[in-house]
Protein 1
Amino acid sequence: MSETMHTIMNRMSYRGNYLDRPVPAEDLKRIMEAGLAAPSGCNKQTVSLIAVDDSDLLRRLHQVIRPPIGDTAPAMICVLTRRIVAYRDRLFNVQDYSAAIMNMLLAIEALGYRSCWIEGHITDTDRIGRQMADILGVPEEFELVCFLPVGIAAEEQNRPKKRSFEERAWFNYFLKNE
C-alpha cells in the first residue's frame, strides 16, 4: 500500500519540456490499460483511447493545439468519450473519462514518466479537440476531450502549494476553520 500512496502523493501536473526519448509501446499500452480499468457509470464504458507516438502524427496534432503545450513529449494519449444514456436520462461520460484519466496519470507516474491533464482549451469553442479527432480519423460520435502528453521530464518543477488537510477535510461534520 505504501507504494500506491507514494505514487498518489508524488503525482503532479508537468508542464515543462520532455527529454527526446521514446516511450515504449508496451508502457503506453500499460497506461491505457490502467485507464480502461477505471469504473464506468452503469458499465457503459464510454471511454476510448488513442496512443500516438509517431513523430509526424504528433507534429500534425501539435500544429492545431493552441496555445502549445506538451509539444516536446515523445507520446500522447488522446481520450475519447461517447455520450451514452446510462440510467434514465443520465450521462456519466464525464465521470467515466475523469476516472480513466486519473488512473492513467497515476500509471504514468508509477512508470517514471510525467504528464498533464490537458482538457480546457481543446474543448473550448475553437474545437481543437475535433480538429485533433479529424487528424486521427475519429468518427463524429466520439468527442476528443483530453490529451495526456507522456514522457520523461527534462527539467525539475516546483510542487504547487496545496491548502492544508484541516482546511479541506473533516470528520463527521463540516467544520469551517477560522
Note: The chain has one domain: 2-154.
Protein 2
Amino acid sequence: MKKTIVVNGIAIGEVEATGDLILDAKLAQEYLNNKGLLKQRSLAGEIFSTAQAFANTSAYLYENGLKKQPSKGTSIVPFVVNSAFAIELYLKALGKKHHVTLRGHELLKLYKTLPRTALVEIEEAIPRCAKERRLGNSPNFVEYLKELNSAFVDWRYIFEKSQSGPIHIEPTIFVMQVLHEAFRSQVKV
C-alpha cells in the first residue's frame, strides 16, 4: 500500500505505507529530502510556526464565533487560551531568534527577558499594527500584555474558578499581530 505525499495541497509523490507511523514519517521525510523539498527551519522558526498555528485558531474562533452577531459565548474561552498561548510562543520565538531561551507562561516576565534588539522589533511593529485595530487611544502594548499575563494558565480551567480578570479581544489580537510582525522583521540595532 502507498501513501501520497502532499505539500501545500499538491500531491507530489508516494511512499510505501508500512503501518508504522514513525517509519512512515521517516520515509516521507527521506522522500522530501531526496527531492530537495525538505526545508529545515531554525528552532526559532519552528516555535514561530507553532505560534502562528495557535494564532490562526484564535482568528478562526474570532471570525466564526465572536465577531458575528449574535456572538457565540462558548468561543471566548478557547479564543483566550489559544491567543495567550500564541503570544507566549511568539515571545519565545523572538527570544530564540535573538539567542535567548525563555521559559514559563507569564507573559510579562517573558517580555521583560527579551533582549533589546527584540524589544526594538516590537516597538517598530506597534504603529504599523495599531492602524489595523480599533484600540481607541494610543495603544499600550505592555498594558495589554499585563492583562493577558496569566491568561493561558487561568483560562484553561476557567470553570474551576469563581472569576477571572477581563480579556479584551481587540488588544489581544493586536498583541498577537505585533509579535508576529516583530518576529518577521529585520530591525538592526
Note: The radius of gyration is 19 Å.
Protein 3
Amino acid sequence: MSLVKTKGIIIKQYDYGEGNRILNIFTKDQGIIKAVLYGAKSIKNKNSAAAQFLTYADFILSNSGRDMYTVRSCEPIECFFKIHEDIEKVALCTYMADLIYTLINLNSPDENILNLFLNCCYATAYKDTDNEKIRAVFELRVIAYSGYMPNLINCTKCLSNENIAAFSPKSGGIVCEGCMQPEDFELNADIYHTLKYILTAEAKKIMSFSASETVMRTVSQIAEKYAALHTEKDFASLEYYKKISGRMNT
C-alpha cells in the first residue's frame, strides 16, 4: 500500500455507509480524486472537522491500487470560513464546483482550473467583489481553459474584421452585423473590452477590472449561456444560486 502526499480542495462530499464520508478532492498533482474518510462523524477523528466542502489542505492518502483513496491525514491550509457564513456564497461555490466536476475527468490534473477556483474562492471569501462578477469570470475562464476559448479577433462566421456587432455563444465568439442572429448579445466597446480582459488577463489579476452594472449584466448573461452550451447540462446548483440571490430573471 503506497502513500500519496498532495494538496487539494474538497469540491464534493457525501455520506458513505455508517459514519463514513466520500470526498471528491481537486488536487494539483492528480486532478479530481475520490477518497474515503472512515469515521468522519466521530468526534474522535481528528480529520473530520477539517474534511469539509472547500477545505484546501495537505492530504496524506493511501492507495491500494483502486480508484478510491483513503484519507490518512488532512492538515488545513485554508477553510474559507467566510464563505460558509453566507448561503449565497456557498451556493455560488457549489455551482463552480459542479462546473469543474462536469468539465474535468477523474485523475486528470489541471493546475489552471485549480488556481482559478482557488482565486475565485478567495475573492468570494475575503474581497468586496460582487458574486455575479466572480461567477462570470469563473464561467468564461473555466470554459476557455477546457478548450473552448471564444474568438474575439474577427467574425466567427465570415472572418470579417469589420462591423463587429455581437457575441454569439452558439458560434463561439464575436460576429459582424451581417452574421448576427436575434439570440446573439449586442456588443459595445465596454462589453467587448470586459470580455477580452476576463479571458486574457493574468490569473492573479482576473478580478482587477471595473465595469458598470449594465455591462456586467450583459457579460454575466454571455458567460452563463456560453458555459451552458459547452457543458450541455442544466445545473440545479445554478438555479438555486439564482433563486436565493434574486437573479432568477436575469
Note: The CA atoms of residues 102 and 231 lie 7 Å apart.
Protein 4
Amino acid sequence: MASSLLDSLMQQLESRGAIDQIAGKLGVEPAKANSAVSAGIPAILAGLAKNAKDPAGASALANALDKDHDGSVLDDDAYFDAYEEKQGEKILGHVFGNQAPAVESQVSALGGLDASQGTELLKMLAPLIMGFLGKEKSSGGLDVSALSQILGGGGSGGLQLPGGLAEILGGLGGSSSASASSATSGKASSGGLGAILGKLFGKK
C-alpha cells in the first residue's frame, strides 16, 4: 500500500517528465535533480506536519487546501514554464517560517545544488505538493488533523528525513542514526517516505 502510493505520486511527476523539466530549469543533470527532489519532498511534508501539530495550524492547512489547491496543478503541462515563484515562496514561508533558509541550504547540499538552485527547486515543488495533498483531501484520503501525528510518530512509521533536515525541523525525522545514514548516501530514504505516504493517504 505504502509503495503503491509513493509510486502514484512519483508517476504523476514522471509522466509529465517533471524531473527532466526541473533539471532543465535548474541547469543540472536529471540525476542531481532527482536527488534534490528526494530531499525536498519529505522536507516540505515534515514542515507541514510540524505546523499541523497545532490545531489552528491544521485548520489553516485544511482551509488552504480546500480553497487554493485542488490538484489541477498536477495536470498543468505548462507548469514548469510559467510557475509562480511568489506562490511557492509564500507556501514555503508559511511552512518553514524563519527556518526556510536553513532548509533550503540543506536541501541544496543534499542534492549537490548551489543555494539559489535549492531555493528555486523548493519553490517549484511546494505548489505541486500542496496540489497533491489537496487532491487527496478532497477524495477523502487525507486527514489533515492527524498529519503531524502520522508524520512525526517516530519509529519505522515516522518520516525519515535526509541528514540535517531532521534537526532543522525539530526532530520529525526519527532517529539520528537514520539521518546520518541518509546523509552518507546523500539521498532521502525512499522506504521512510513511502511508509509515511502510506499512512498519510491511507483511507481509514
Note: Residues 32 and 174 are 25 Å apart (CA to CA).
